[in-house]
Amino acid sequence: MKPTKGRWNVRADAERTGICFYSPHATSLFDEMSPGGHGGAELVMFYLACAMSRQPRFVVHFLLKSLPVRRVDDCAVKVHVIEKSVARGEGPRFISVFTNAVRGVRPFLRTGARVYVLCGASVTLGYVALLRQVLRRKRVVFIVASDADAQGALLRESPAERRLFGIGIRLADAVLCQNLGQQEAIAAIYGRESGLLPNGMPMSAGPPFAERRHILWVASCQALKQPHVYLDLAEAMPEERFVMIMPPRKDDALFVEIAARAQGMANVGFIEGVHFREIQRYFDEAKVFVNTSTIEGYPNTFVQAMIGATPILSLNVDPNGILTEHGLGRCAGGDPDRLLADLREFVEDEQMRRSIGDAAFGYAREHHDLEHVSAQFMEAIQDVLA
Fold it and tell me: In the chain, which ranges are continuous DSSP H helix?
């Protein structure tokens, strides 16, 4: 299906409910020409939108920062481009705030959708939630993308933006979290209840049968992902093959530093970007998947590792205790030496890796199959429309 390129279809079938997903940086998921540029939040929204577009009672819209050059997905999703906001300092403050508010909500209105779905901290949530107070038939659903969202750690540089985001959470018709810790934080900080929605992905009937070739790390280039810790592991285990997939983000200096170090190591394969349709094979062929982030929500990479029947070793993150309580891997509790020791043990014990990998695949089938997750999401949509 071709993008609308500025022409908005506001005449939806009277028997179909319009749902509008807002995820500006998800263009690469629709675009055959783009290998990366998205994160976990964008992937969550993309899969949910595609799943909902296959339901006959819904018409699904998706708002993007830029339209795909060559669309490759097979989803019945109508894609639209959002309007550029005015940067701080461009004209009087009150004018830029008003202009951004108008530009923030206008694309939603043009789709004719009744339900707006947003994921990740942004001022747009505040704008849209306030709009919903005026247009009472509209509904707003917010999906928490990271523990930092729930803890109020994002948008800290601007008190006004932080307040708008807080208003958005409080006024949203539904807030959906990835883990129990996020639910507790939302209740404590924003004083509201929230639901749980696992990350959903398409799954095969059984685990992959692939040769295990490497130790894998996949994340965007951000300081909180701590890519240098992963390279420290590779340096300590020169006999093993390490693969690092790290699309650039906003930190150009960090990307240059990490890329130069990785490319100078004989046992590290550094890959700048892989299209999401091709990346699963790297998980399928991994002996172990390693996460070194300081904070996450519920990483999609964990789900991809589970689908690949690959054990997970994490430095800090263990959402809902899945690694320790369900035996899908281990969490080092922030101790890099312990992470290294765990990695050595896992590499040397193939039988243990296989057993944990089978358990991980079974967990993914039970909790993260897109078919089941999208059904839960549809229930949440029906609840807010009731």
Answer: 27-30, 40-53, 93-111, 123-134, 147-151, 159-171, 180-190, 227-236, 252-263, 280-284, 300-307, 322-325, 336-348, 350-367, 370-385
Convert the pLDDT of each residue in 338-363 to its tens digit. 999 999 999 999 999 999 999 999 99
Looking up tokens 């009744």 gives 114
- Model-level pTM greater than 0.85? yes
pLDDT tens digits along 91-139: 555 556 678 888 889 999 999 999 999 999 888 999 999 999 999 899 9
Closest alpha carbon to 41 in 133, 127, 154: 154
Q: Positive or negative CA dihedral for 359, 361, 365, 370? A: positive
> What are the start-end ranges of the H helices in 4-122?
27-30, 40-53, 93-111
Which domains, and CATH codes, for the chain? 17-200+369-385 (3.40.50.2000), 214-367 (3.40.50.2000)
